[in-house]
Design brief:
ten-stranded mixed β-sheet
Length: 561
């Protein structure tokens, strides 16, 4: 068919309120498109038409409708001079639309999270689920016939659909709370894939323009050099069959023994083949999921993006600040929205028992913090205290999702006070004689220090296994002098001016402390919180952080979510 409508438009779709609404699709010849939007009483809200001139460089047509107030039960009609029939979509809501992007912790399904069973037992969505709608972008990483067949079956889902159990847990709880606080229907567009680098979600141009980021492309090109597309596809198809068998056997073993470790499974089953050979068909390739997922929903009008990703860029942590910054620029450019809000998760504590503490997640957390300071409308949500021991997937998702929502409420909607809903972050440090004083934002009422002994013992066990026993005077705080060697530090609330938002650090091992850091480990306790109960963001005041390890954690397999 020469004329089609993007599959992100269907019955039950949610259109963004108070912004120009972009309606789009595809056409392979010149045509004129007509779009009309009606309210619940059949009254015309907005209409527009546009002539589309086809070229080999682009097949996407776009018609824009005027901004509308929030309302439900609307009707959308689309037609073309090349098509005799008019397409009519019903039960359209105009409310808030957010894209839920990232990797497996955003992908993690509602049915599998701690709070999922209770939430799903509310079959009518009376507690709020009925106010959330969900569209999952077609999740196939190679655009062949199967891709378009599958995409044709995608549509917006409501709480009445059985498929709700597979919605993003983080996305759902975010949307449910937002719908309640704003009193409107909220639509979520799921655009996520477990195990992915941020480089998979960007256009190649945004990787090529930076020497550090270009390595994502050159490594791919070197791996496929001399291989035809047919050969690459055949290799990847063979891998998928092998991986399916491996994963099935692993699941069977895990069902029998919930304490099964990855290492012990590989001793029985052999090395897991994931993530497969680098190829044009591998979804983890640079720009691969941008082409097959993101670009299929551009420029659907959004309020903003919630983002949970970074785990799989652990092997290049020092490039992550530029990587994430460029991704944001890329998406804002393509959506033609230079201030499109990004509300994102700072990685929680994580480390597998068998891994060394390479502190790469520390670097990524630091990069995520720097993005929040340097990029307008990029708002970080601290999740330091929400990690799960020996598991990259924390099962509880509701608390994190509601932190994201409160962040959006404060920073995007201006409906909440930042100091009440956001984590404290380091504002400045003041070296003095034999001590260093730290001051914080969002901590006007002071702090609470409460050590979680369970997490502390888990951290001790991890370090003991690596023969790097944890110091007995561990507090989570460390200081360093001119030599930049860190030692455990004692602390006292209040500085020389006794303000509630200050902390003083000192150590017998460092006579003149110049630098300070807190929670500088991949996994460990997060004992310092604000009086509002939110964790203090980890920090390191060194101007340039040395690379402590060229290795990285080997266990990066993203389990079934």
């Amino acid at each position: 068919m020469s004329f089609s409508i993007a599959k992100v438009f269907s019955n039950h779709c949610v259109l963004q309120r108070n912004k120009i609404i972009s309606i789009f699709g595809y056409c392979d010849e010149n045509c004129r498109i007509f779009v009309e939007l009606y309210d619940s009483d059949g009254k015309l809200l907005s209409k527009n038409s546009s002539s589309f001139k086809y070229s080999n460089k682009g097949k996407k047509w776009i018609v824009k409708l005027s901004a509308q107030n929030a309302q439900d039960n609307c009707r959308l009609e689309i037609s073309s001079d090349k098509s005799k029939e008019k397409t009519i979509f019903t039960d359209i809501s105009i409310g808030e639309v957010w894209l839920a992007g990232g990797q497996s912790n955003m992908e993690f399904e509602l049915q599998n999270c701690t709070e999922g069973p209770q939430e799903l037992s509310d079959s009518e969505g009376i507690d709020g689920g009925k106010n959330v709608r969900f569209y999952y972008t077609n999740k196939i990483g190679w655009m062949d016939e199967k891709f378009f067949e599958a995409e044709n079956n995608t549509c917006w889902q409501t709480w009445k659909d059985e498929s709700k159990k597979s919605w993003s847990a983080v996305g759902y709880f975010f949307a449910k709370k937002l719908a309640k606080d704003l009193g409107v229907t909220v639509g979520l567009i799921g655009c996520n894939w477990g195990g992915t680098s941020a480089s998979s979600w960007m256009r190649k141009e945004y990787l090529e323009k930076d020497e550090d980021l270009k390595t994502y492309i050159t490594e791919q090109e070197e791996a496929i050099k001399g291989k035809s597309i047919e050969q690459q596809c055949a290799e990847f198809d063979a891998y998928e069959k092998e991986n399916d068998i491996w994963q099935k056997k692993f699941s069977e073993m895990f069902e029998k023994d919930k304490s099964l470790t990855w290492e012990s499974a590989e001793k029985v089953l052999g090395k897991c083949p994931w993530p497969g050979p680098k190829s044009c068909k591998n979804p983890y390739r640079p720009a691969g999921l941008y082409e097959c997922m993101v670009n299929r929903i551009i420029p659907y009008t959004l309020k903003g993006v919630i983002w949970y990703q970074g785990e799989s860029d652990d092997y290049k942590p020092y490039a992550y600040r530029k990587l994430f910054t460029n991704l944001i620029e890329n998406w804002r450019t393509d959506w033609d929205d230079e201030l499109l809000p990004f509300v994102y998760v700072q990685l929680p504590v994580h480390r597998y028992l068998a891994d060394k503490d390479f502190r790469h997640w520390c670097i990524i957390r630091k990069a995520q913090e720097e993005v929040s300071k340097s990029v307008a409308n990029a708002f970080m949500t601290c999740a330091l205290d929400l990690g799960q021991y020996n598991d990259i997937h924390p099962k509880a998702k509701k608390v994190l999702a509601e932190r994201l929502e409160q962040n959006a409420l404060a920073n995007v909607y201006k409906n909440a006070k930042a100091e009440e809903v956001l984590s404290p972050r380091l504002f400045d440090s003041y070296p003095e004689a034999q001590k260093i004083t730290l001051s914080f934002e969002n901590a006007q009422k002071g702090f609470i220090y409460q050590m979680d002994e369970k997490i502390l013992n888990e951290y001790r066990d991890m370090e003991a296994l690596q023969k790097t026993p944890l110091s007995e005077d561990f507090t989570g705080f460390e200081v360093a002098g001119e030599d930049e060697v860190f030692y455990p530090a004692e602390f006292a609330f209040g500085g020389t001016d006794s303000k509630l938002n200050t902390i003083t650090l000192f150590s017998k091992s460092v006579k003149e402390p110049l630098y300070a850091r807190y929670a500088w480990y991949n996994y460990g306790p997060a004992p310092l919180k604000a009086k509002n109960g939110l964790p203090v963001q980890p920090f390191n005041t060194l101007k340039k952080i040395k690379q402590e390890a060229t290795e990285h954690a080997e266990v990066q397999q993203i389990m079934t979510v």
